[in-house]
Design brief:
With about 250 residues, the chain is of the alpha/beta class. Helices cover about 40% and strands about 20% of the residues.
Amino acid sequence: MKLLWPNPSSSTEAAALCWDHLAADIDFEGPDSTTRCGADPFAVGLLVVSIPSALLATWDLAERLRLLHRVEVWLAALRALPGAEQAHFELASGPRYVADLSAADLLVEAQHEALTGSPGDYEWDTFIIHGSGDRVAARSVWETLIGHNISSFLDKASLRPGDDWPRQLLKGLQRTQVFVVIVGPGAAKAWYNHDELARAVQLTREDPRRALIPVLFDGATMDDLPYGLGQIVPARPEEVVDAVRAKLRA
């Protein structure tokens, strides 16, 4: 998202506040590279602010509350600068003045942008969602997909020693186009992969370029489909490559 600051003399201060309050969680392009003159006679300080999608999608309530507080403090500091009454964010829903925007509103808008990024911003073609009892089936599907040059995220294969497991899983989900859900008997009653599945369902609803493909293993039937997948036609293991390719081309 972009923060337009109409007072060039204080745009550097606004940039400094972005860094001081949000440095650990915000990617910021400083004023030297982003301050430009607008078409009107008044110079405009352009601050580019990007809140990482993996953080926005965190399941950790305490972390969400900490981020909300930091954004509240940051906005309060921005409002105290000269020109703040005319500064505004360019959001998907339209321009919003700094003075009128709450921290919660800003995070909702940032999350919407993160969930509906531009075409070509996916790092992975597929993300394999599975329960602990379906690890062998998940590994088989992963090997099949990468053997057909389809990039695929699988927790045991894609995470490295020292990685923050929950955050990297979130990052993988956010950067994937097609979610392949391994469904074995009893999957509908399993709890261990429901957080990942719920996030994948949300991402798919927010972004029509994404898709969910349940794959039935070991005699599983439609009755074994977890909540949220009941309206989706499942694939058999031998159909998964063609099913994924069809969604990637859509």
